[in-house]
Each structure stands twice: as C-alpha cells, then as structure tokens.
Amino acid sequence: SRAIKTNQDLLPETPWTHIFYNDFWGTLLTHSGSHKSYRPLCTLSFRINHAVGGMDPWGYHLVNILLHATVTGLFTNFSRILFGDGYWTLIAGLLFASHPIHTEAVAGIVGRADIGACLFFLLSLMCYVKHCSTRGSSPSTWGWILGAGLCAGCSMLWKEQGVTVLAISAVYDIFVFHRLRMHQIIPVLCKRKNLTLFLSIGLLTCWGTALLGVRLYWMGNKPPSFSNSDNPAADSDSFLTRTLTFFYLPTKNLWLLLCPDTLSFDWSMDAVPLLKAVSDWRNLHTVAFYAGLLLLAYISLKGSSNERECNGRIIMNGKQNANGHSCHSEMEYKTLEVKSSFVSKEENGIKKHEMQKLQLPSTENIVILSLSLLIVPFIPATNLFFYVGFVIAERVLYVPSMGFCLLVTVGIRALYVKAQKRFLKNLVFCSTAALIVFYGLKTVVRNGDWQNEEMLYRSGIKVNPAKAWGNLGNVLKSQSKISEAESAYRNALYYRSNMADMLYNLGLLLQENSRFSEALHYYKLAIGSRPTLASAYLNTGIILMNQGKTEEARRTFLKCSEIPDENLKDPHAHKSSVTSCLYNLGKLFHEQGHYEDALTVYKEAIQKMPRQFAPQSLYNMMGEAYMRMNRLPEAEQWYVESLRSKSDHIPAHLTYGKLLALTGRKSEAEKYFVKAIQLDPTKGNCYMHYGTFQID
C-alpha cells in the first residue's frame, strides 16, 4: 500500500528525481522515521508500471514474472559454468525455478526489489566470470570488471543486499577460478606473477567500500529505527535473549529453504518466540546448524587428498578412473574429458583456450561458492551490523536460495557418484525429480494463497495470528462484513492486546456504526499504546465535538496538532491526520463565532499540509471565515482555490454562488448553483440554496 498505492513518487506530477532522495515508501531518506530502504531502481520500475497501466495490478505482476523468468535463465546459465552441460545444470535451474520460497518475491509486488537485485547480482557475477577468463589475454578484460562493478551498483540500487555480489565474485576468483586453499591465498597474492589477481580483488574491495560508504552517507549516517513488534528480539533488554534468538534465526531460515511447508506473509511479532534460556530445546537446532556449516566449510576448504570427484566421475589420487575420465592436479582446474582421446592435449594438438572450455571446478570448489552464495547475501538480514525491521522475511531468501540450490545439486551429484549400483543411481534421480515436483506443487498451492488478500491473511493465521487476524479484519470491513470484521479485530487483540493499529481500527469500525462510547474507549486504548497516533486523536475529537463536549474536543485537537513527526513510520499519514485535526479545530472555532481564531488555525493547517492532502474543504472553510468577517475579496480568492483543487467540490459551488449573489453577479451565481445540483441531483441542500437564491 505505502510502496505503490499511496507513494507520491509514482505520480507523474512528482519530479522523478525525488525517487533518488526518498526511501522505498516515499519518505525522505534522511527523515528520522525512514526505513532507510533505498531502492530507487525498484521504485522507478513501479513508476513506469504506473505510467503505462495506472493501478491495474496485471501489469505489475507481469513484470515480476518476466523478471523471475529472466533470473532463472541467468542462474541456469551460471550453473553451466560449475556443472557443465547436462543433468546437473538442469537440476539446479529447476530447483530454483520451482522453489516455494520465491512465491512472496514473485507474487507480492514489493518483492520485485529482491528479484531486480538478483537479476543484476547475476549479471555482475557473469561479467566477473568473463573478466577472469580473459584476464591476461585480452584488453577487454577490464571492460568486463567495469561491467561487474556497474551491475553490482545497480543491484544495490534495487535492494541493499545486492552489493554482496562483490564478495561472491572474490570467492569465485580465489576458490573456483584459481582453486586455492585457505593457506595458499596470501602467498599466491604476494607473488609478482599474480599481480592481476591481486589487482582484481583490490578493485572489488575498493568498489564495495565506496558503494557502502556512499550508501551510508546518503541515508544520513544513521541506522533505521523499528518498533518492538517488527523485531522483538532487537528490543529485548536481555543480552542472552538477543544472542540466542539471533543465532537461531538463520537456522529457521535454512529450514524454510529445506522444507518450505509452513510459509507466511509476515513473521513479525511473536511468530518466532524469543529464546530466553539456554535450556530452550531450539538451541539444539542452532548448535546442529552451525556445527554442520563449519564442518562442511572445513572439509571443502581443506579438500580431500585421496578421493575426489569431477562432474559425476570419481578420481583416485588425481588419476583417471575406469571410465577413462581424469582431473588434473590440485593447482589446476579439474577437467571433464568428453572423449578419451582428450587425455593428452599435446598429442591431439588441442590449444590451451580450447581446453579451458572443458575445465570444471571440483565439488569442494562448488561447495565453497555455494556456501558463500547462501550465507553472504543473507548477512544484512542477520542483525549483525544493524537491526532490521523483520524477524523472518521469505523474500529476503530469494538471492541466498541460489546458493541453496547449488548446494543441493552438488549434494545430489555426490550421492549419484558414490552410488555403485544402477538401482541406487536411479533412486537418486527419482528422488531428485520427486523433490522438484513437490517444490513445484507447493509453489502452485502457495500461489493460490496470494490470489487475494483474504486468502493470504487466512493462510497466515497459524504463524502470526495477531497480524493475520488484524489484516483480515480490514479486508472483511471493506467487504461490508461488519460483524465478521469486528470478530477478526477482537481475535487479533486476544493474541496481542497492545496493538495500537488494531485498537484504532476496531474503534473506527465502532464509530462508523454509531457505537460512539465503545469507539472512544478503543481510541483511548490506542493512544495509550501509541501516544503519537494522530488519527486516534482526530477521531476522538470528532466524536467529542459531535457530542457537544467542545472543550474536550478542543484540547484533543490541540494535543494532536503538537505531535511531531519524528521517528514515525509513516510521516505523510501523520501529517494528514494533524492537518485534519487543525481543520476540525478551525471548524469548532468557526461554529463558536471565533472567526479570527479559526483563520489562524486554518493557516497553520495549510502550512503543515502534506502534498497528498486534499485541500478543497480547508480552502472552502477559509473562504467561509473571511465571508463571515465581510472580507469578500479574500473569501472569493479561497473559494476559487477550493474549486481549482477539486472542480466538482459541491460545498465550494454553493458558498461561491452565495458570494457572487451577494456581490450582484447573479447570472454567474446561478451557474454555480445549477452546477452543484447537476453534480448531485439527490442532495436536498443544493435545492435549498438554489431556492433561497431564486427568492432573493
């Protein structure tokens, strides 16, 4: 809603350059309440969508699907570099294409940020791969590294985690292209003949540092701030609770990749209960996860000296096996020989660059790259450097899932190689096919949940009942299912009683159904939970004013008008509520005959009014106040302003018609009265004013 429907940066009247100064939600990036989510290229794509098809969701979804298809193709192409042509590349591509964890990123429009970042992530990586293969043999090699840097910058401008591709490129260069071990890295980089490698890694480091520095400066050198419900662990006073929970969350994310059985549109609040003690059994999952991760990384970095495997063929001590295929020594690329005659390239006259095309990395190399691709892009979401505004977000796993798919593929390949019997090999292939089919079916089912808001929120009740019931209440209310909506709001408050938004929404529902005393009760609870909730003050003041409690209403409106917009998640909505409070306070003064006070308040409202606020009623009341004070030129000016801002505003037609009649311009006045009747023939007030005009 805030990213598209109410985002002023998508509108044609807003200068497109604002996109580069505002965050993803249209708030000034340096504002204290900004999420600091700087994704201008994603917002620009939304603006293009809006320019072409307005608010028709079809076009937005089409772009997301096309982007996902493109990313899948690029990922499959990158897998060919690791696995060569054949089944393994196809398996990696199918796993990525069918994985259910991608549903939120593709089916949810705002998930486009992750898809776009992944697109340029892969483009940057592919450019760097090309740089590695041409380094030392072609002048164009530095053009490829320039392309890698530019694509990395674009990836970051789609979403922050895109900058991590530079680290992945360095891992590829060191562990895949050069096949170095940990203890070899520093000695190799120090050798003069490896100057180009050192230069490439240096350029990646410098460019990454520059991008992060500019990014930090552009957002005001301040981290974002989030509410307790967004990330409860970050708000915990206990260091033990924060530590145990933050260490556990990556384990939970990996489980979602492994077994995406339970998915949800929202994992905030209490969706993942905090780990408050060492005795919590979930700590066993944490220990198992990190132990397995470290063990896998250690084995891959150390390598195996006795038995190695090359694209599905076992190699003993660097010699070929019974199938006649071989891999070279540890400091060379392992080679997949297409024919046994390729064993000796000198004998067959094969040139070096032709053999290069046949060289494929070892299993250990692919595991290192896969782990890096799984872990490094996920680091920004770990709360390691700064707190994030979510507990778990499935869309954030879009880029890391590439590492997961590679890891699963290389694991399947290893099982296939180890299997000695044809039956076991077939079993591995059948199990893999079943996994891809199950992932695909789950994706189809999950897409069904994303067909409409009601189905989506109902699907999330078992994971995050408070948030799901609250959002479901909004949907049911929009469908005029009032009793069901009220029940949904009360269910949400049963699970989390201090949710200011839900208390406010329930109060609004009760107010719209003339249950004013109950509405006041919930508005006061909402204000108690969030003292800066201006909309609750606004509606409280309106109810009090209608009940004749003018002094209480005046105090409520005044208190609302004094609330600053610092550290608020949606400063635009806050400013709109404050402007409405001042408008109603001015009306209160107007009805009491204090026209000077009313004008003062109206002028303050105009000063605080945000761009998206509809000002026609405010301008019309300004004209009314001036007219009551017999300052007719000023009154006419504001009536004209009111009609200019909204040409079909009926009250302004009537009040301006009265002014024109009063100043003797009866023919003009009649036009405005007739126009008001034409705009709403059912409105008796229009006929009354026109009748009075005719009598006079």
Automatic annotation (TrEMBL):
Residues 221-293 form the DUF1736 domain. InterPro entries: TMTC_DUF1736, TMTC_O-mannosyltransferase, TPR-like_helical_dom_sf, TPR_rpt. Pfam families: TMTC_DUF1736, TPR_10, TPR_12, TPR_16, TPR_8. TPR repeats lie at residues 466-499, 500-533, 534-567, 579-612, 616-649, 650-683. The chain crosses the membrane at residues 58-75, 109-129, 194-218, 284-301, 366-390, 396-416, 423-441. Its EC number is 2.4.1.109. It is found in: Endoplasmic reticulum; Membrane. Pathway: Protein modification; protein glycosylation. GO terms for cellular component: endoplasmic reticulum membrane. PROSITE patterns: TPR, TPR_REGION. It is a multi-pass membrane protein. Keywords: Endoplasmic reticulum, Membrane, Repeat, TPR repeat, Transferase, Transmembrane, Transmembrane helix. It is an enzyme of class 2 (transferase). GO terms for molecular function: dolichyl-phosphate-mannose-protein mannosyltransferase activity. Belongs to the TMTC family. This is dolichyl-phosphate-mannose--protein mannosyltransferase. The gene is Tmtc2.
